[in-house]
């Protein structure tokens, strides 16, 4: 009986210590940051109803006239403010993963960095957080792909898409969507599965661009040709 009591006491102590590791003040701050990051982007969702949009504007304390005037500029301004907050948090705590703030709050810093121009600076930190299982590896993969795309290099997992203005065969300007060029495209679905994604490159392309989109592998050379046509 005594041994069972000691075992239960040890287990209870462990669970209490695990709960105490969650920094509730930091969790609240990060939840608010993620609310702003995601909320501002939801305003541009083509499927959002006018009623839901008005409610979201109210919840985010955004003046409707200011939003209509500034549009994406307003998003950029808040992205910059959020990045400053995240950098301060990281300098104090390191990456705020699930051990420190729980789930899904451990997404907050990732979202802000993913939407910033500082991916290259923080990618090593993100990889380390993934290695320690503070965030899922799929998030590491998405950020690495975003970084490679921004550097005009081939992505690895096929998570990133792009839209470009170009000209058709008649010289008319058209807008096209495509999955950013891949390294070793033949084996991308195996890499995706190994990384933890539950969709193929074809399915993910439709998620990004619509159910009627047909995936076609692009090379970096083809992307350059598309851009040159628009010059």
- The H-and-E topology, N to C, reads as HHHHHHHHHEEHHH
Number of DSSP helices? 12
* DSSP E strands, number: 2
Strand content: 5-15%
Q: What class, by secondary structure content?
A: mainly alpha
The overall pLDDT average reads: 91
Unreliable stretches (pLDDT < 50, length at least 5) are none
How would the global form be characterised?
globular
Q: Radius of gyration in whole Å, from Cα?
A: 22 Å
Task: Give the biggest beta sheet.
Answer: 2 strands, antiparallel
The neighbouring-strand order within the major sheet is 1-2
* Helix content estimate: 55-70%
Distance between the termini: 81 Å
Structural overview:
- There is one protein chain.
- By secondary structure, this protein is mainly alpha-helical.
- The longest helix is centred in the middle third of the chain and has 22 residues, at 72-93.
- The model has no long low-confidence stretch (mean pLDDT 91).
- The chain has a two-stranded antiparallel ribbon with strand order 1-2.
- 61% of the residues lie in helices and 6% in strands.
- The protein has helices spanning 2-20, 24-42, 50-59, 64-70, 72-93, 98-101, 108-114, 119-131, 137-150, 188-195, 201-209, 220-229, and strands spanning 161-167, 173-179.
